[in-house]
Amino acid sequence: MGFRFFLFLFLVSFRALLAQEFEAATIKVDGATAVAETDDNFICATLDWWPHDKCNYNDCPWGYSSVINMDLSHPLLSKAIEAFQHLRIRIGGSLQDQVLYDIGPLRSPCHPFRKMNDGLFGFSKGCLRMNRWDELNRLFGRTGAIVTFGLNALYGRHQTRKGVWGGAWDSTNTRNFIKYTVSKRYQIDSWEFGNELSGTGVGASVSAEQYGKDLINLKAIINQVYNNSHVKPPLVAPGGFYEQNWFAKLLQVSGSRTVNIMTHHIYNLGAGVDPNLVSKILNPHYLSRVEETFNSLYRTIQTNGPWASAWVGESGGAYNSGGHLVSNTFVNSFWYLDQLGMASKHHTKVYCRQTLIGGNYGLLNTTTLVPNPDYFSALLWHRLMGKGVLSVHSTASPYLRSYAHCSKGKAGITILLINLSKRTSFQINVENSMNFNLAVGKTTAMYRGTTFMGSLKKSMSWIGSKAEEKLVREEYHLTPKDGYLRSQTMLLNGIPLKLTENGDIPSLEPVCLSLNSPIFINPLSIAFIAFPNFDAPACV
């Protein structure tokens, strides 16, 4: 394996020299203070309710992957979750506001979802039976999952006009469901209220005034049912697309500390059938458009509810089940990892990917549960990127996206580099806030012998006691198999990421390089680079 690593590094350097365009760039990281902080478990994935006959564009990509019908005993499902040690899972989606919980008296019979022309999203109401809820919780318990459950926020309401629902929420079924969950001692991390009912809504909407009043009611139920618990689950809302006035009104009406977490959804690539999905993903100016949404939501929370934090509660890039042979291929990691970086620096605590399994955008293959490329991107982020977000300044063109965090579980920092350029290879020089090189951008003999080490200890306070250690960095280069952007096989340092012979998730090992060697990133590639010797005060 060592030979293959060195061969890969040689090819990286050689291809860089042969690239049609070559650009030197400096990336300066300020490790003095963190500009934002994520949750320890920032990475989140969703489980949806869609039945097998959910179709878009003559494609039915959901199979048996829903909360109701997926095979919970499949060994790959458990292994995929366990690899994160504590993966956040959000249960929710378009049909959640039609789910009845099969406990206590109900307004209508509790039957499975079925196609219905005049139903919301073309389906009837559905049913979550308590034996299935028991099975789900056994999965969550043995895999260490951290669960957010999305509750039905339309129960008891009526449609007043097309797309608009009125009347107070009937809390009876939810109260009985939460009471059952607590009686079974199931560990639910947070309860979310409704899905995409905010603003003009998707399929259905509820006014911010009524929604706020209903949240006060739900908060009281949670406090009452969890009365004997030391910790009460946070209340999450509204799980919809951001509209500034609606979100502000919701916080004002619900009042202080009712809503603990404000969730919004992002599908900034457009429809899954859009033939321009790949060009959008590789366009840095297009990717940056959504940045104002993060900024505006943060300002809205600070002004109207500073006690709350922001989550991306659902994001699949392309809506209507994602893009076939786009969302489940290597190219999607450019969008996904850029979203993680952008969201984290704008005070997003958690980012939930649509989906863990299901649709074209699943982290796992819907049929086989074999990991798609974005699964490994998520796992690398989870293992490498700590919660401290650092400021980054780059001299590179907009096609080189760069983000930096405190390293997770160890000293130093980790930088994420995303090269969207089809033609340009970058040679990168990394500096700390004192403008001193961490990795030389020119192939010089700068780092040699004890003379350099002695001067380094005198001039570089950021290294401190680490100066006696070997100065190295760890690199994780991600590329598509055979250079094909729509490949469903991702290479890590030139080696295909695939399940082991025992069907286990493969180890994700870096290449360790001397700090004085140049950093290259090829066109259309991604790299995580960890600097263990970068002594950032913000990361202590």
Question: Can you walk me through this structure?
Answer:
The model is unreliable at 439-468 (pLDDT under 50). The strands form five sheets. Strands 1, 2, 17, 18, 19, 20, 21, 22, 23, 24, 25, 26 and 27 form a 13-stranded mixed β-sheet that branches. An eight-stranded parallel barrel has the order 3-4-7-10-11-12-14-16, surrounded by four helices. Helix 6 (244-254) runs parallel beside helix 9. It contains twelve helices and 27 strands. It has helices at residues 2-18, 75-82, 130-143, 172-183, 208-225, 244-254, 277-281, 284-288, 291-304, 332-345, 373-384, 449-459, and strands spanning 21-30, 36-37, 43-47, 88-91, 99-101, 126-128, 146-151, 158-161, 164-166, 190-193, 235-240, 261-266, 270-271, 309-315, 318-319, 348-353, 385-394, 400-407, 413-419, 424-431, 437-439, 472-480, 490-492, 495-496, 511-514, 519-521, 525-531. The longest helix is centred in the middle third of the chain and has 18 residues, at 208-225. By secondary structure, it is of the alpha/beta class.
Compute the gyration radius: what is it? 24 Å
Helix content: 25-40%
Largest sheet: 13 strands, mixed
Total beta strand runs: 27
Distance between the termini: 34 Å
Decide which structural class fits the backbone.
Answer: alpha/beta
Number of helical regions: 12
Q: How big a fraction of the residues is strand?
A: 25-35%
Can you tell me the residue ranges where pLDDT is under 50 for at least 5 consecutive residues? 439-468
Give the overall shape. Answer: globular
Average pLDDT taken over every residue: 91
